[in-house]
Amino acid sequence: MLTAHSHGTLPRGGFKALYDPTLAYKFLYPVQGASGEQLTMTLTRPPEKYSSAAPLSADARQRIVGELFDLRKFVTASVTVGPASGVLKDLPQQEWRPREVALTVLVDRSTARLSSGQRTALNDVIEARTEERNGQTYFVYEHTSQGSPTVANPRAETYRHALAVTTTRPGLDGKPYLFTLNMSCPQSLWADMADGFKTAVDSFTLVEPTNAYIAPDQNPWLFF
């Protein structure tokens, strides 16, 4: 199971650390904004293996394997996993372009329903780039989306601003699976959350698998 604990003194106001041995990843997430206002990030989707995780779309490619959510401020931190699809499916990984990776991941989120009950529609990829971290390629991208009205703003469409990072790990058959951390908030909170989101995205790492690791394509028929 995923563990969460205080990470000690960290930049930009305070973070907690999450580690999931089942899919072997870890990251930091902010517990307050740059203004010092506290966040209450709750596990709304407990981490689980890919085969039993909630699908983001009808074809069930991308699945939410873990999600944290602040119920008051509509701030989310979600981890999704899925096989390479679309234009990426038939391209060698060294030919993948950052914007293509971003759009491939986000097309499944375009009809996704958040834990708040809000649906979102893909709006725009603002920036996308690659980073090399310890020999592993990470695709970092900033994007916005338009969502349905929320409890906090029931009369109007709302806009969300997000920072995400995607990297890959091969399944048992050698084909790449996309592991994505998406940090998202209402547009009105972006200035307060942007630095914390950057720290979270920079910290996202696929760690060395242990005996607890379950590959995404391992026992796909087993739902528990």
Give Rg in angstroms.
16 Å
Distance between the termini: 13 Å
Q: Please mark out the parts with pLDDT under 50 across 5 or more consecutive residues, or reply none.
A: 1-13, 114-120
Strand content: 35-45%
For the biggest sheet, the summary is: 8 strands, antiparallel
- Please count the beta strands (DSSP E, at least 2 residues each): 12
Percent of residues in helices comes to 10-25%
In round numbers, the mean pLDDT is: 83
**Helical stretch tally:** 2
Described by the principal axes of the CA atoms, the overall outline is: globular
Sketch the topology as an H/E string, one letter per element.
EEEEEEEHEEEEHE
Q: Structural class from helices and strands?
A: mainly beta
Please describe the topology of this protein.
Elements: E1 3-6, E2 15-20, E3 25-30, E4 41-45, E5 54-55, E6 63-70, E7 75-83, H1 98-109, E8 120-133, E9 136-147, E10 158-170, E11 176-186, H2 190-203, E12 205-206
